[in-house]
Q: What sequence folds into this?
């Protein structure tokens, strides 16, 4: 009965979102018989600096409280209510912005473009979740991320998926963060923000595609928990790295594990690792795996070079994402388009006073940056692939069920299910 | 089984999302954007239901030698003025009078014994033979005279678009009063005149009607400038007026109905005295796109003479007999 109620509430929520999507992009504006005049478009003032620091304080507060609830209090309920708060504050009130996920691009651009400055609040938003992850695991994912929050609240009937599917899909965030950094470094675009699937829902406004994408991910999230976090989130890559080295990560059981397996069944993210099967972890197997591990380790540089070479072949294609490169190629191929008064981009270029030679020169510089960038991107992806392959041969010894430090979102569901009492 | 299905769904949805995003990203290119979604396009309002059209164009009289600036109808003669010319022709196009005026007239009012021509910032009075009687002094700076209307043989109302006001003179050129359409109640806003399109008329009942173009309204004032009533219709559709300043020109029939002429999306229509659309005289397709509003006059038989400035032609519209 309770499950049915939850499903009904979710269905109602989705219907609301669909009706919201239908209300977008009305054009032309309606006319009013009453004489009401459409107000002039105004540009809102930027958020006051004090309020931006307030947002940082809220972020610190939420992550601190989440850490306390996970490490000390071991309260899943507390995490749940904190998630609701985050959804309301960082999601619907702050409209999903400012967010650490998108800040990757701001930080990257600030590094590569001397003319681009970022505020200290953006830098803090970028760094603080990583620092927390380094000490306490992914407290940000647990309760401070609005994108994670909206997905976490719709996890109704999570289904475990095979390891190979998770590992294969787990490669996508690396590609995504690589492309996002490449595009931001070359001043091409902020693709993470452009394709944030939930910001349209938070703002109750956005392109049909993005609203639809957000709804699709939420529907998928009913069965495959937090799909954006697990398959796309670029910031999750950084958090995963930090969390892997976290000093005081969430523990499933407060004392000795009784290997009841309840926690593994409770984790919707398949982020709990089972104890090692000693029948499999024989001395011979360990030796064999070690040999494979070393061989694959030696192959990592090969993967890096191969990756760099392969991806660099796409630098011409990828560089066309930059508006200047695309425009220069377009105007060289079709000079007659200069007389197309309907084409706003071309007209904007012509009115800028910039010559065609200047445009081509700038485009060739950008293409050179892409050539270098794609070598680095490919090398990085080769490295990730190489490490993923190496990891196949690690046979760690585990006596208990433990959370996978990189993949665990510290949601606390496993603690809730653990039957072991502190006094046990 | 469930695990397998979900795995397949997850992989397929992920692939679909990646393909969608790549397609979407590659579609946002300067040569793939298609039509500007923010372009000002009123094409859909240019088509008019043929059943609403009650007039047809029967003939026209081209104006030669000069650019016509105003038209009036009196004593079964069409009076025209423009670049330094005052001319009177019969409805058949036969010239009866031609005189020099020495300036570009923008509006005119012909009454028994006098012809008043409005120039940019002053009015001149001529006799019916085209001889200058008096040149009135300009009522002030920024004056842009756009319309004249006589009340009997006593008063001449002058529309000054530059100062958004109506001036009342006697026929000797003495300024009696002026008003700006600002009523004490909330009903009146004052004249909103964004461009030099500000018309007024005195109908056969002696009522003064002034167009408030920025409000898409036609307002009735006492001669002292008190608002008595108004009707307004803002709409892109055929039933109302649109744009910055419409109706740009008006005329009145003997029963008090209004013939309205609009600029930009040019169309001529007839409304009853309360502002209900009666019929369409000429739909937009009859005129140049983004054209000037033809000045309209109407004779006792209901024939409408529209001075089409863009074609420099008097176009004659007669009611379709049913």
A:
């Amino acid at each position: 009965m309770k499950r049915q109620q939850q499903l009904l509430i979710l269905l109602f929520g989705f219907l609301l979102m669909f009706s919201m999507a239908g209300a977008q992009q009305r054009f032309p504006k309606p006319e009013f018989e009453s004489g009401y005049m459409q107000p002039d478009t105004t540009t809102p003032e930027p958020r006051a600096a004090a309020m931006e620091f307030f947002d940082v304080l809220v972020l610190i507060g939420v992550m601190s409280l989440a850490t306390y609830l996970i490490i000390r209090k071991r309260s899943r309920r507390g995490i749940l209510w904190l998630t609701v708060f985050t959804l309301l504050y960082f999601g619907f009130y702050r409209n999903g912005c400012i967010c650490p996920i998108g800040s990757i691009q701001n930080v990257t651009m600030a590094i590569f473009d001397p003319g681009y400055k970022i505020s200290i609040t953006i830098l803090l938003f970028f760094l603080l979740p990583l620092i927390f992850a380094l000490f306490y695991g992914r407290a940000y994912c647990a309760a401070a991320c609005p994108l994670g929050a909206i997905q976490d609240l719709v996890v109704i009937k999570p289904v475990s998926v095979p390891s190979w599917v998770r590992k294969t899909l787990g490669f996508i965030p690396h590609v995504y963060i690589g492309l996002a950094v490449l595009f931001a470094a070359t001043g091409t675009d902020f693709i993470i923000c452009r394709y944030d699937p939930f910001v349209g829902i938070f703002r109750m406004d956005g392109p049909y595609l993005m609203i639809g994408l957000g709804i699709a991910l939420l529907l998928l999230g009913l069965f495959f928990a937090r799909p954006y976090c697990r398959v796309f989130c670029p910031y999750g890559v950084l958090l995963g790295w930090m969390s892997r080295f976290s000093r005081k990560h969430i523990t499933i059981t407060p004392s000795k594990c009784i290997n009841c397996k309840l926690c593994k069944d409770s984790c919707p993210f398949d982020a709990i690792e089972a104890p090692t099967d000693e029948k499999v972890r024989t001395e011979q197997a360990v030796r064999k795996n070690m040999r494979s591990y070393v061989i694959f380790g030696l192959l990592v540089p090969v993967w890096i070079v191969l990756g760099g070479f392969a991806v660099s072949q796409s630098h011409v294609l990828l560089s066309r994402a930059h508006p200047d490169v695309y425009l220069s190629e377009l105007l060289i191929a079709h000079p007659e388009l200069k007389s197309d008064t309907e084409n706003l981009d071309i007209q904007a270029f012509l009115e800028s006073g910039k010559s065609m030679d200047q445009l081509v020169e700038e485009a060739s510089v950008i293409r050179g940056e892409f050539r270098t960038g794609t070598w680095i991107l490919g090398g990085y992806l080769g490295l990730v692939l190489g490490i993923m392959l190496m990891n196949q041969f690690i046979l760690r010894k585990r006596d208990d069920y433990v959370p996978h430090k990189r993949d665990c979102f510290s949601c606390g569901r496993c603690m809730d299910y653990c039957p072991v009492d502190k006094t046990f | 089984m469930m695990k397998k299905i979900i795995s397949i769904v997850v992989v397929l949805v992920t692939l679909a999302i990646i393909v969608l995003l790549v397609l979407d990203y590659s579609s946002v290119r300067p040569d793939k954007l298609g039509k500007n979604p923010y372009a000002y396009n009123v094409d859909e309002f240019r088509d008019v239901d043929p059943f609403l059209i009650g007039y047809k164009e029967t003939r026209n009289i081209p104006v030669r030698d000069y650019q016509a600036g105003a038209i009036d109808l009196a004593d079964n003669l069409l009076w025209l003025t423009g670049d330094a010319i005052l001319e009177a022709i019969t409805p058949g196009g036969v010239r009866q009078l031609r005189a020099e005026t020495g300036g570009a007239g923008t509006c005119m009012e012909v009454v028994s014994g006098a012809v008043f021509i409005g120039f940019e910032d002053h009015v001149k009075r001529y006799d019916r033979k085209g001889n200058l009687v008096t040149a009135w002094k300009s009522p002030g700076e920024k004056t842009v005279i756009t319309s004249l209307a006589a009340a009997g043989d006593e008063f001449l109302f002058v529309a000054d678009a530059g100062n958004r006001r109506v001036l009342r003179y006697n026929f000797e050129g003495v300024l009696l009063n002026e008003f700006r359409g600002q009523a004490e109640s909330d009903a009146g806003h004052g004249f909103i005149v964004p461009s030099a399109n500000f018309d007024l008329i005195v109908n056969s009942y002696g009522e003064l009607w002034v167009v408030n173009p920025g409000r898409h309204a036609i307002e009735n004032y006492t001669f002292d400038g008190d608002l008595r009533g108004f009707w307004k219709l803002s709409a892109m559709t055929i039933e109302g007026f649109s744009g910055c300043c419409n109706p740009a020109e008006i005329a009145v029939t003997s029963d008090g109905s209004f013939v309205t002429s609009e600029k930009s999306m040019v169309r001529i229509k007839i409304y009853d005295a309360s502002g209900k659309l009666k019929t369409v005289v000429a739909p937009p397709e009859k005129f140049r796109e983004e054209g000037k509003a033809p000045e309209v006059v109407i004779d006792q038989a209901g024939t409408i003479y529209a001075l089409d400035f863009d074609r420099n032609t008097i176009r004659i519209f007669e009611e379709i007999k049913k």
